Amino acid sequence: MNYWTILLGSFHEVRWSYIMDEAGPEPPTAVLLHGILGCRKNWGTFARRLAKEFPKWQFLLVDLRCHGDSASIKKRGAHTVASAALDVLKLVGQLRLTPRVVIGHSFGGKVALSMVEQAAKPLARPVRVWVLDSTPGKVRAGRDGEDHPAELISFLSTLPKEVSSKRDVVNALVRQGFSEDVAQWVVTNLRQTSPGASSSRFSWVFDLEGIAEMYQSYEETNLWKMVEDVPRGVHVNFLKAERSLHRWALEDLQRIHAAEEVAADEGGGVEMHVLEDAGHWVHADNPDGLFKILSFSFQGF
């Protein structure tokens, strides 16, 4: 039977938690990064599954700036992909960890790439970076009937900061045209303000103004240069969700495949994967398929 210690901590930058086997020696580390409007808990179930299958590893789940428990930490400067990546680099430095694997979903995927761009030398060799359903450059909006993060952030900014019912928020989002699944996911960011009170009230845990800045940076940040000149010993893996076609243009796929050939010649690695039967929420839509694809990164330890 496996037992895990889940440690919650904070430094001046971000909040984080470990999922690890408490009985073993100091293990290799994987860092898991959530997407915009998410939090580290999005990865909880999946990380526990990884920890059970690969008990020699530890898994560091981070609340990025303005999200989850990190939203209460006041930040100076711009809220960008680069600043979020620097937060994580500072965190692993303070924890004296050298990640062997960095997994980022959506916005978190660009954060992972920015970590490599900003601090190639401190990262362990080899290191595998997984960019889940995100491209290094232009962010393309969804088609009609799909959920648009920029519009979601804009609509959330019109809602009160404190509400009496999660269901009312879900209904408001659905009336606005967002899917029930996205609406249910968004209200996981609501927490009860006065537990035990006769009338429940809920408030948002995120910093929505900061998140709006971060999403704008996500749209504007271009990390193709890093992908097309991957540092030696770094392996960048892109995963495209089969049903998330709007986020991928033919030119994106062509550039990644061209980068695969260049990286192989230069001692690095770039690889493209496709996750079948999944939309953008890869770890919820097809966790078995995602687990199978990611597993080879954890083998051999």
Largest sheet: 9 strands, mixed
Mean pLDDT: 85
State the helicity in percent bands: 25-40%
Number of domains: 2
Look at the helices and sheets and give the structural class. Answer: alpha/beta
Principal-axis shape: globular
Q: State the CATH architecture of the largest domain.
A: 3-Layer(aba) Sandwich
Key terms for this structure?
301 residues; alpha/beta; Rossmann fold; nine-stranded mixed β-sheet; 11 helices; 12 strands; disordered N terminus
Compact description:
One of its GO terms (molecular function) is hydrolase activity. The chain is of the alpha/beta class and 301 residues long.
Structure description:
By secondary structure, this protein is α/β, with parallel strands linked by helices. It folds into two domains: 4-142 and 213-298, 3-Layer(aba) Sandwich (Rossmann fold); 149-206. Helices cover 36% and strands 19% of the residues. The chain is built from eleven helices and twelve strands. The strands form two sheets. Strands 1, 2, 3, 4, 5, 6, 7, 11 and 12 form a nine-stranded mixed sheet that branches. It has a three-stranded antiparallel sheet with strand order 8-10-9. The longest helix has 17 residues, at 250-266. The chain starts with a strand and ends in a 7-residue tail after the last helix. The model is unreliable at 1-12 (pLDDT under 50).
